[in-house]
Design a protein that fits this description.
With 190 residues, the chain is α/β, with parallel strands linked by helices. It is built from 6 helices and 12 strands.
Length: 190
């Protein structure tokens, strides 16, 4: 049976994630309410602006149901802003910014620079035979990795793709790479 995957559709690059997941055979729902969240098996939290997404999660009354589902073991892929929202600790975040505290990492918001300093790089990913073309847009940097977190890829010495239990987080935007392997791996792990 095909998994039903939600894509958090409050802000950010959710449509590209949805298209890739559908192409890979998943049933995809855009998630904007707690009722919609309750109907999916897993969730993608896309890139965007992490403080805005945090506020929208609260305003849409999704923050608590999302936290409950994640803590109960729902699979999740968080990219860029999604990584920030899933981290245990955020450096340079706003005081009113929420963190779901699911993945034992410390991230620094916009650590790779401003929008004009965005870049692309080929990175080696554990389990992939060829490099993955990663797109970094105002990307967060992982500054600390806890003992329960597996680093799957690095850019230089910095971890950029991590997994902890059923959560995978990326500092980059895999939906912009033209390469479906990361989404396929996420679905395979469900």
């Amino acid at each position: 049976m095909k998994p039903r995957v939600g894509v958090l559709a409050l802000q950010g690059g959710f449509a590209a994630h949805a298209a890739i997941l559908q192409n890979l055979g998943a049933r995809v729902d855009e998630i904007r309410t707690a009722e919609q969240l309750a109907s999916v098996d897993a969730l993608v939290m896309p890139g965007g602006e992490s403080t805005t997404m945090s506020m929208l999660l609260e305003r849409s009354e999704l923050l608590e149901p999302l936290s409950e589902r994640l803590n109960a073991g729902m699979g999740v892929l968080g990219t860029c802003a999604g990584m920030i929202l899933l981290a245990v600790e955020v450096v340079d975040g706003r005081a009113d910014q929420h963190s779901l505290g699911l993945v034992d990492i410390t991230v620094r918001r916009n650590a790779y620079g401003t929008q004009i300093e965005s870049f692309e790089a080929d990175i080696g990913v554990d389990g992939f035979e060829t490099p993955f073309h990663a797109v970094f847009i105002r990307a967060p940097a992982v500054e600390r990795v806890g003992p329960t977190v597996e680093v799957l890829a690095r850019h230089g010495s910095r971890p950029v793709l991590c997994r902890s239990g059923r959560a995978m987080v990326a500092a980059f935007h895999p939906e912009l790479s033209g390469d479906e392997r990361l989404h396929a791996r996420f679905l395979a792990d469900l």
